Structure formats: structure tokens, C-alpha cells
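> run fold (rape) hypothetical protein
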Amino acid sequence: MSNQIEEISCFSKCPHLSTLFLGDNINLQLDFLAVPQFITHMLKGLRKLISLDLEQCFKLESIDGIGTSLPNLQVLKLYCSPVFIDARSIEELQLLEHLKILTVNVKDALILESIQRVERLASCVQRLWIFDMSATVLTLNTLALGGLRELYIAGSKISEIKIDWKSKEKEDLPSPYFKHLSRIVIFDLEGPKELTWLLFAPILQHLEMLTSRSLEEIINKEKGMSISNVHPDMTVPFPKLESLRLRGLAVIKRICSSPPALLSLKKIVEKLLLICIFQEAPQTILFVFQLFIW
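> ok
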């Protein structure tokens, strides 16, 4: 990991290799179809491979052929690589019958919907990077993406982000929220004025919002109340939040505006101020403190 490997040519000598970390190798060129010699070595030497980390391999060209080349893969990490999931990739990934953990990149809202319709595939997604997406509505299903742990949205124009908590049979779920989502990073997102859907991430521990100039508030009072009326156990936002980073939010006015229902946010202020004293400029401390005052 984190080196400058350009070529690997010893796969046939590693018949028992089960885990391969190639993440953060900026010079390594991999194309499962365009390089026949590479795929031949893979077939001969790595069919027992169960874990492959290609995160931040910036010269990765495609994953075409991976389904037949590495049939035993249980872990595939593609986060922050140049490979964005498309219809062909979805078909390829479905060939990995043993897949349990998947980190992926998506730039098409319709493709993300397609992934969520493939229950076995969607349930494997633990890290999702949404980049350069242009959409009127982006829908995230809490059941389909039940294994999601980290969500990154960057460089996108999305008018509205909706949460769907219904099953395929359109039945309401008893626990309609993301059970494992603990980190959300939103950078350069254009469109939304609020992010009330974050209420559906009750175990959120780390939240970053950077350079999203249309954002006026995080939790909208009216929308928050409409959600809590349907789901009474979701009245308090961010009960487990440990770190909050806000930067480049030109028009933000408030984090929330309902003190009776959100008293726990004062504890976050105390935690946040302690962090800011050591890590942030005094003006940032004051700005964040003001956001929490009603």
C-alpha cells in the first residue's frame, strides 16, 4: 500500500495468496481485459484470492473480467479509484457469489438505484463515494444499503436527497434508519438547502460539510418534525456525534432550530469546543458556538 508499484508479474508463484492490498498505488495500471498477460497470471495464480484492495489506485481502468477471474472474492475495495460502477459493472459484480464487502464509486443516480435493487450486491456496500453526480433526486434506501458505514458526496449537483425506508414489498420497516452509518463527508454539493435526512443516521460519529454554498441549515424544523411524527425514536439528531467539521458554508444559518427536542446538542458543543481549542482557529470556535445557540 501507499507506494509506486508500476508492474506485478509474480502471481503464478503465489497459489495460496488470499489477500492482496494494492490500495493507494498511484502508478499501478490494471485492466482486467486489456492486459491479457495480467489476466492469465490471475487465472493461474490467484483464484483463491478472497480480498482485493484497489482503493485509490488512480490508474485502474476497469474491473471487466473480475467475476470470472477471481470467483472466490469476498472483499473488493474500489473506493476513490477511477472505476465508477455502470450497468456492465453491476453484471460483473453479480458474478462474485461470495462477495461480502464492497466499496464503490457512483456518478449516476439511476445506476445507484439499480445497485439498490440488487439486494445481495447492495447489502455488501460499506463505503460509497458519490462524485460528479447531477440529479434532481437521489434516493437512498436504508434497507438495501443496510451495511453502509461511510458515505462521501463530492462535486455533485443534487436538488434533493430522499430516504426510502420501505422494503421491496413496500412495507414500512420496524427500524427505518442506517444501522451502521458512522461517517458522512459532504464536499462541494450544490442544491440542497438542508440535510434533514441525516436524522436517519442515528449512530453518526463523524460529520464533515465543506464548500457547500447552498446549505442554509442541517436539520430543518418542519421536516424534522414530520419525520419524528412517523418515527418517534428519531427525534434527537446526532446522539453519538463525536466530531463536526464545517467549512466554506457561505449561507449556513443554523444546525437545528428546535431546542426542546434537541437538547443533547449542547453536549456536542462542549465536546466540539474542546476539539476546536487545539485544532481550529478562535474564529471557527466562535462561529460553531453561535450555530448551536438558539
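Residues 11-267 form a domain with the Leucine-rich repeat, LRR (right-handed beta-alpha superhelix) fold (CATH 3.80.10.10).
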